[in-house]
Specification:
Elements lengths: L10 H11 L4 E6 L5 E6 H16 L7 E5 L4 H13 L2 E5 L6 H14 L3 E4 L1 H7 L10 E3 L15 E6 L9 E5 H18 L7 E4 L6 H12 L3 E4 L2 H6 L2 H10 L3 E4 L1 H10 L2 H4 L9 E4 L6 H11 L9 E3 L1 E2 L6 E3 L9 E5 H5 L12 E9 L5 E5 L13 E6 L6 E2 L3 H8 L12 E10 L2 E7 L4 E3 L2 E3 L1 H9 L10 E6 L4 E8 L7 H19 L5 E6 L13 H10 L6
Parallel strand pairs: 1-10, 3-4, 3-5, 5-6, 9-10, 9-11, 11-12, 12-13, 26-27
Antiparallel strand pairs: 1-2, 7-8, 8-20, 14-15, 16-17, 17-22, 18-19, 19-21, 21-22, 23-24, 25-26
Helix pairs in contact: 1-2, 2-3, 6-7, 10-12
């Protein structure tokens, strides 16, 4: 792999240098119908397209203005993104408007918050919008693909206004600078080099939405190392997970990434016949991040795709968040990911004590060590005192990857980015809202602070309950599930999608609900008051497929399905 240059000071330089050093290498390509490459740009092509967008933007914006990018997955977005960097404006990646007034309203609210100077899109999307574009979009312009005179490069500190996915609350825009990104990309370089020797030609494959932090980071990382990125439409993966692995096999992908649920989907939906057509031997790094990493998922995926040449050592469980650019921890020096079983009651009481008894323990996957240049501390969320190794607390982060704060939200910025340790440490820390602990320097994630449920006087992490439910009956295996508490008495409710035909017979409903209650009581010592059995696809999810907890809680409270 080409060494990551350390004298680069802005993201636009990544592309400019590659356009000179390796103009004819394919920078990005897009998979279209029938899983075939339909578009590709070399580094020279991408540079020219970015210059065309920059020349257009410079005549319409001031340095530091925000520009909404409204594109489908593909090379057009990549060109527009680097065009923003060349023009010295802040890119605001946004999801395409889907059918329905609610989707348009959501996008309008995002634009109203971002306050862009204008919106850049494709001719097809502009035609689709017609006269429906919200006023908050500003002028809607189709990205130029040619220019008469090469523009002068401009600079601004903030590279991207990154909106969070909204899986746990209202989406907020995080201000991420060029320096934040470059530091984070170098950390990711440390992760990948420590895990395995990297090839001379990095080949990244991604179906992740380009407006999400991890999808965007993979684009930057590929450019940093002069690699080739193959983009798959997110919906193509969600409808047919096989397409992801088929493309990896076809292009010889060396690095890919996804949330944990994606690997479960592949195990569940990729048949043995399909698997036998795959060659996954080229994969050296497979990042698993953005939601809890499950030991069962890693084991099942490695076993299912071992015949295709997949190596369990390629798995790289990571922890990160948009407020920290994307990656926080994940450094591991070879070997398979570390899985340790801890006493379940101990974790609920805030202490991580190893316990090999399957009936009384919870297996956790280590998310690696922190990289050099970043400080990770485990802190009492109430008193702000640092916790000792093996004690559970909120994960606090400090270092050059931490973003500037939330756009136009000063109070929330102070609360989240202004954590202060009790004692003499004057540094400000990012409060991640995640609970975890350190063991022998490695970070283990326990759950979300805001999600902790107190039931019958006991603290319960909903992700644990959901994991138990999914494993309690074949009808729930691999299906989405959410556990929440509601009411003054904090009654525990579980909603789970069921892999059977609806409508369910009453006896079948009662049996499945009883299975849920028995499994949760046995493993967690708490009662489930309400069980909602739903058809597949009923639980609301984000654009990357993660369950939207706030919306699911509303669904439960509204009694949108039969409660048992």
């Amino acid at each position: 792999m080409i060494d990551a240059p350390h004298d680069v000071t802005d993201l636009g330089q990544l592309l400019r240098r590659r356009a000179v050093a390796q103009p004819d290498r394919v920078a990005c390509q897009h998979v279209g119908i029938e899983d075939r490459i339909t578009e590709r740009l070399t580094y020279a092509d991408l540079h020219r397209r970015a210059l065309a967008v920059a020349a257009q933007l410079i005549t319409m914006t001031e340095p530091g203005d925000r520009v909404l990018l409204l594109h489908p997955s593909g090379v057009d977005f990549t060109a527009a993104l680097f065009g923003c960097f060349y023009a010295g404006v802040t890119a605001v990646p946004a999801p395409l408007p889907q059918q329905g007034e609610r989707a348009i309203a959501h996008l309008a609210a995002l634009a109203d918050d971002a306050r862009p100077a204008l919106t850049v899109t494709t001719a097809a999307v502009a035609a689709q919008l017609g006269g429906r574009a919200p006023a908050a979009f500003g002028p809607v312009v189709v990205a130029a693909d040619t220019y008469d005179v090469a523009p002068l490069y401009r600079r601004c500190d903030v590279a991207v206004l990154q909106y969070t996915s909204g899986s746990t609350g209202v989406p907020r825009g995080v201000l991420i600078t060029h320096k934040n990104y470059l530091h984070n990309l170098r950390m990711l370089t440390d992760f990948t080099h420590a895990l395995a020797p990297q090839p001379a030609h990095l080949r990244t494959v991604s179906w992740l939405p380009h407006f999400h932090d991890m999808g965007l980071a993979l684009m930057m990382y590929t450019a940093l190392h002069g690699g080739t990125m193959t983009l798959i439409p997110p919906m193509a993966f969600l409808l047919r997970p096989f397409v992801w692995l088929r493309v990896v096999s076809a292009v010889g992908g060396t690095l890919t990434a996804a949330p944990n649920f994606a690997f479960d989907q592949c195990v569940r939906k990729v048949t043995a016949e399909q698997r036998d057509t795959l060659d996954l031997r080229t994969l050296s790094v497979v990042l698993n991040a953005a939601e809890p990493v499950r030991p069962r998922t890693l084991a099942q995926f490695a076993a299912h795709f071992g015949p295709s040449g997949f190596r369990a050592e390629a798995f790289a469980p990571c922890f990160g968040l948009a407020e920290g650019t994307v990656f926080v921890s994940g450094l591991r020096h070879g070997g398979t990911p570390r899985v340790v079983s801890f006493d379940r009651r101990g974790l609920q009481d805030g202490v991580a004590v190893p316990n090999a008894d399957p009936g009384a323990s919870r297996a956790l996957v280590g998310c690696g060590h922190r990289p050099e240049g970043l400080t990770v501390r485990i802190v009492d969320p109430t008193h702000h005192a640092e916790r000792a190794p093996g004690e559970v607390g909120e994960i606090w982060v400090q270092g050059p990857s931490v973003g500037m704060g939330y756009w136009r939200r000063p109070a929330e910025t102070t609360a989240t980015f202004g954590g202060r340790l009790a004692g003499f440490d004057e540094r400000l820390y990012l409060r991640t809202g995640d609970l975890g602990f350190l063991r022998e320097g490695e970070l283990f994630i326990v759950g979300r602070l805001a999600d902790v449920i107190t039931v019958d006087g006991r603290s319960v992490h909903p992700q644990d309950v959901e994991y138990t439910v999914q494993g309690s009956d074949p009808a729930f295996e691999g299906r989405r599930c959410v556990a929440v508490a509601h009411g003054a008495a904090q009654r525990l409710a579980v909603a789970v999608e069921v892999r059977v035909a609806f409508p369910l017979e009453e006896s079948r409903r009662e049996a499945l609900a009883a299975t849920v209650r028995a499994a949760v009581a046995a493993e967690h010592g708490v009662d489930v008051a309400d069980v909602l059995l739903l058809p597949v696809g009923a639980l609301p999810v984000t654009t990357s497929g993660k369950v939207r907890r706030a919306a699911c809680r509303e669904l439960l409270l509204a009694g949108a399905a039969t409660v048992h």
